[in-house]
Design a protein that fits this description.
Blueprint (H helix, E strand, L loop, with lengths): L4 E3 L5 H13 L4 E3 L12 H6 L7 E4 L2 E4 L1 H9 L11 H31 L10 H22 L12 H14 L12 H11 L13
Parallel strand pairs: 1-2
Antiparallel strand pairs: 1-3, 3-4
Helix pairs in contact: 1-3, 1-6, 4-5, 4-6, 5-7, 6-7
């Protein structure tokens, strides 16, 4: 069977989340801008054929075209290999709840409102709008304080295994840890720093995390 293809740029937060899940499973895959043979520019007409709202990543696997990170995660979970969901319904629901909060509210506070201004500045002539960043910092700090409290110096955000919630959280904190002072907002939380360092060292993170991949 053909190798599963993930359409999107290597630096994409959600693409990195999916890659962590695939690596946990031992599910070989490729990152590509040309899932149908020719390169598809992001946010163009051909991209819209893969995802009606032109988001990333999109999984292309044979005849299967599957947009949306959660749907891709569900498909990956069905493949052979270690599960990233607990064995009982209640704990599964808790993981899905945590994953939803991280990918929605925490993602907005840290990635959308804060970190993306550094990578894709929207100021005049491409300048970083530091006033926007400063205004967004309290909300990002609040989200990080909540995460540190929930994590409570554990290696996994919930329970004793890597779950979907970790896959959503790790790339975000990895990006944040690469920021210089005073914008590395997670540096004051030792539990978050230890968490990121632990996961950076694991085999499933190799080639996924870090600025250069």
């Amino acid at each position: 069977m053909a190798t599963p293809l993930l359409y999107g740029p290597h630096f994409s937060y959600f693409l990195r989340s999916v890659r962590l899940l695939m690596n946990i499973k031992g599910f070989n895959h490729e990152i590509t801008k040309a899932p149908r043979g020719e390169e598809i520019p992001f946010f163009g007409e051909e991209h819209q054929k893969l995802h009606p709202f032109m988001k990333i990543p999109v999984l292309v696997h044979g005849d299967l075209v599957l947009p949306e990170t959660l749907a891709i995660a569900w498909f990956v979970e069905s493949q052979p290999g270690p599960s990233f969901l607990p064995g009982n319904t209640v704990d599964q629901a808790k993981v899905l709840s945590m994953a939803s909060m991280i990918s929605s509210y925490v993602h907005k506070a840290i990635m959308v409102n804060f970190l993306l201004e550094f990578r894709f500045p929207k100021g005049s002539q491409g300048a970083i709008r530091y006033e926007v960043i400063e205004a967004s910092m309290p909300q990002a700090e609040q989200a990080l304080s909540w995460l540190a409290e929930v994590l409570d110096n554990r290696r996994y955000i919930l329970g004793e295994q890597f779950t979907l919630a970790d896959a959503y959280l790790i790339p975000m904190l990895d990006y944040l840890a690469q920021m210089h002072e005073p914008y590395n907002l997670s540096a004051v939380h030792t539990s978050l720093c230890s968490y990121v360092e632990f996961h950076r060292e694991q085999a499933y993170s190799q080639g996924v995390l870090g600025a250069s991949v």
